[in-house]
Amino acid sequence: MNGRKKRFILTYTQKNIEESDIFDAISMIGKHGRDAFPVARKKLLKSVLGSHRRFMLYKLLWWLPFIFNSNPPIQKWEKIAMDMPAKSLVESILGMIISRERGNSHKQIFSESQINNAVKFLRNYTMGIPILFRMRIRDKNNINELIITIGVAGSGKSKFIQQKYSHYERISMDRVRGIYSLDPADPEQSQLAYRYCIPQLEKVLAQGKSAIWDATSLTQSSRKGILTLARKYNAKVITIFFDIPIDEVKRRNRSRRRVVPENVIDEQNAKLEPPHIWETDEIIIVDKNWRENENEGNIEGTG
Predict the structure, then answer these.
(1) In what order do the strands lie in the sheet with 145-150?
(2) In terms of residue numbers, what domain contains 226?
(3) The domain that contains 254 carries what CATH number?
(4) How many domains does the chain have?
(5) Are residues 64 and 30 in contact, defined by beta-carbon separation less than 8 angstroms?
(6) What does pTM read for this prediction?
(7) C-beta of residue 99 within 8 angstroms of C-beta of residue 29
């Protein structure tokens, strides 16, 4: 077999594997809604997909339950339109519709009403509903930055930023927990650590310095207060999303000085919400090998 033909077969096989993994992940969301997101993400993490493509699929999976909703509120339309590039969104929905029309296995996953709602969403998205983009305005001459880490305990966040961003002021909730013997599994004690760290962060940003918020920052709501400070002091926001398989996270956790109970890691993984475009000026994705993939402002790529 010549090299050219061999490369074609390998590429074709990889493409089929990718499509199968994507279909399985979408199927989980179609059947079980947003609750299936952690399992669907785990499926994609085991695939051969590149980091950028996988990240865009996370966004599709995150918003699919709203796309299937017959009457999502206007705020959700706006957020989906801001968070997902039109090309990715349109191609994904059209793919579902075409597969169902051809009688493929999507027919077993998506009901007729779900597909109809998706078509309605697509029609409004491309033709009808006015979208009010609330893009962030920032003075580009101001060069201080706020880096926010996003990832479950044991992802390697602290070690990564100590090696890559040692010259930034680091605000660490884990360090506060260690000093005051606070339990990371206790939400009230985590709130104490948060309230202790917020004034420290504000002090650094007020001085025009760059800072790192070293915490799990799992959800949009948990990042809101930090982002408010960034906007107040006109800092560029960079989110670092640690896209690490949960089995690898648990392996790393076992070698930590302060081991986090695995049930806590599972609970954190169930809450993990990828960063959205309106939260950040730049998104950096870090994989299990600590390879960085980054795009300014928006992420749309094949990986």
Answers:
(1) 169-172, 211-214, 145-150, 236-242, 282-286, 292-296
(2) 145-296
(3) 3.40.50.300
(4) 2
(5) yes
(6) 0.79
(7) no
